[in-house]
Write a structure and sequence with these properties.
The protein has 306 residues and is an alpha/beta fold. It has a domain of 190 residues: 3-Layer(aba) Sandwich (Rossmann fold), CATH 3.40.50. The chain has ten helices and 13 strands. It has an eight-stranded mixed beta sheet with strand order 8-7-6-9-10-13-12-11, sandwiched between helices. The longest helix is centred in the middle third of the chain and has 22 residues. The radius of gyration is 21 Å and the shape is globular. InterPro entries: RNA_methyltr_RlmE, RNA_MeTrfase_FtsJ_dom, rRNA-MeTfrase_E, SAM-dependent_MTases_sf. One of its GO terms (biological process) is cell division. Keywords: Cell cycle, Cell division, Methyltransferase, rRNA processing, S-adenosyl-L-methionine, Transferase. GO terms for molecular function: rRNA (uridine-2'-O-)-methyltransferase activity. It comes from Fasciola gigantica (Giant liver fluke).
């Protein structure tokens, strides 16, 4: 939370105590800013002074080519290009026209837009987020839904799939999800002992949901932060996803090496790993985010693991 600076004038006569409580809220997810409008509260105008960091953020947004492309291509956020690049990077792609796709933490809806543009006609896109967000045409959106309650989400997925195929002219399809996506991240506090467990809890909930709803051979994409906890999580995911990734060359990072923002580079711990970390070019170089990408879900491994 960052407090705003206000220009005061006797003609505005804003209550000082109330003004001091107003904040500039940064959503964290997708870098979107929400400003509370004083005019709606008081029916008058006020001049708001952004901090230096806000000005830097605005300058970066104006110069960001993906922000401009998102506007031109009618995507709600620049993060759409991260999914597009991940889809291009993976052999055979991640999203196909007849797929059933679940987007976790979908707000404001850019990843759902990408998925719906590919498979809305003959497939199905289901989106969840704890926040409210506008409906995405061609998708079933469930705002105010906590993905960490993965059992509730699994029930909604089952019902959506049943309704879709009951009313669809598409032939028999596997009763399950082809791809689970997550671009979620917790609101960062800057305290590692709080932020990393929060991120891993989100990732674990998405994995639980994916195991519950995925059809054999399904894929999984989860955003993580570069941290020591990411590798044990990758190994856990690899128990349930077995590839194949034959046409991607694996690279092993040197000690303490960060993944560069390149759409052509992958990071794995072991050259035959079925689960990879990728960083698309649209991911900013100063961002710690990486994407765990897994292919080839094997339901039998769930029973063996349990």
């Amino acid at each position: 939370m960052r407090e705003l600076g206000f220009w005061h004038s006797t003609e505005h006569n804003f209550p000082t105590a109330l003004v001091s409580q107003l904040r500039c809220v940064w959503t964290g997810r997708n870098g979107c800013r929400i400003l509370f409008c004083l005019q709606r509260l008081f029916g008058r105008t006020a001049v708001v002074h952004d901090t230096a960091s806000s000005q830097r953020w605005l300058a970066r947004q104006r110069s960001d080519p993906y922000v401009r492309r998102a506007r031109l291509e009618s995507f709600r956020c620049r993060s759409a290009f991260k999914l597009i690049q991940l889809d291009e990077r993976v052999p055979g792609g991640l999203i196909h026209p007849q797929d059933v796709v679940v987007d976790c933490g979908a707000a404001p809806g850019s990843w759902t837009q990408v998925a719906a543009s590919i498979c809305a006609k003959s497939g199905l896109v289901i989106s969840f987020d704890l926040l409210d967000f506008p409906h995405v045409p061609g998708a079933r959106c469930y705002p105010h839904t906590d993905v960490q309650d993965w059992e509730l989400c699994a029930g909604l997925v089952d019902r959506a799939i049943a309704e879709h195929y009951a009313n669809s002219k598409v032939g028999d399809r596997p009763f399950g999800v082809s791809l689970v996506l997550s671009d979620m991240a917790p609101n960062a506090s800057g305290i590692r002992d709080i932020d990393i467990p929060a991120m891993m809890n989100l990732a674990s909930a998405v994995l639980q949901l994916a195991i519950r709803v995925s059809t054999p051979g399904a894929s999984l994409v989860i955003k993580l932060w570069q941290c020591p906890e990411a590798e044990p999580f990758r190994k856990m995911v690899s128990q349930f996803y077995h590839g194949p990734w034959d046409s991607i060359s694996a690279t092993v990072p040197k000690k303490n090496q960060k993944i560069s923002a390149s759409a052509t580079q992958s990071w794995t711990m072991g050259s035959v790993s079925p689960v990879r970390f990728l960083k698309p070019a649209a991911s900013r170089s100063d961002s710690a985010e990486i994407y765990l990408v897994a292919k080839g879900f094997v339901p039998d491994c769930v029973i063996q693991t349990l």
